[in-house]
Structure formats: C-alpha cells, structure tokens
C-alpha cells in the first residue's frame, strides 16, 4: 500500500469511523459511549479491521458521488454506500453496528482511545504492505 494511502487512512481513521454510521444511530449511542470508554485490545483490533473496510467502501463510493449528475443520483449512491458500510460492520465477527458506533463516538471524545485506534490502523497498514 502506498505511503500516501497509509497516511491518509491513519489521519482520517477516526473521522471515517464517526462519519460511517448513520447520524441517528450515533446520537442515540453518545451517552452509552461516554459511560463505557474501556475497550479490550481484541475489541479494538476488531473495530479497526472494520474501520479499514469501511474506509475502503467510502473511498470507492466517493468517486461515484462526485461524478453523479443530480442530487437524486448522489443521494442514491450515498444510500447504497451506507447500506454496504452497515453490512461490512455487521459481517465483522465480534462486532455490531451499535458497538462500532459506540467505539467511534468514544474515540471522538477520548484522545487516548483515539490514539490507541490510530496505532492499530498504522500496525494493520504496515502488515498489509
């Protein structure tokens, strides 16, 4: 994987995690995420794997959204991307959409957790080189 792609994935990992989940799910999970900010290494590894897959989906659909000619086409593409993102998360063994969203929100609010996830993203990207 090119260095530019690794850097981009690392620096935007948490933003992607937070933006990937539907807004309604994120807002309902905020309180739960703030109450339980301790996550095991294994759980964060699972989350990070899903996060990287979500980033791949978002990257694929980003080009399609930009090339759409109408707002309706853009909305349809975004809906399709969101569906695929939710499926990726739900297909990740040991992770639910609610838990993914909870961890993403917690990472957005907790810089220590954010750094733990970023280190995992970097390690997984290094393994895939």
Largest sheet: none
Distance between the termini: 5 Å
Spans of at least 5 consecutive residues with low confidence? 1-29, 31-36
Strand elements, count: 0
SS-based class: mainly alpha
Shape: elongated
Mean pLDDT: 79
- What is the succession of H and E elements? HHHHHHH
Task: Give the fraction of residues assigned to helices.
Answer: over 70%
The count of helical stretches stands at 7
Number of domains: 1
Whole-angstrom Rg: 15 Å
Report the β-strand fraction as a percent range.
under 5%
Give a quick set of tags describing it.
129 residues, elongated, mainly alpha
List the helices and strands and how they pair.
Elements: H1 3-11, H2 13-20, H3 23-35, H4 41-67, H5 71-91, H6 97-109, H7 111-127
Helix pairs in contact: 1-7, 2-4, 2-6, 3-6, 4-5, 4-7, 6-7
Task: Give an overview of the whole structure.
The protein has one domain. It has about 130 residues and is mainly α. The model is unreliable at about 1-30 and about 30-35 (pLDDT under 50). It is built from seven helices and no strands. Helix content is about 85%, strand content about 0%. Helix 2 packs across helix 4 (about 40-65) and helix 2 (about 15-20) crosses helix 6.
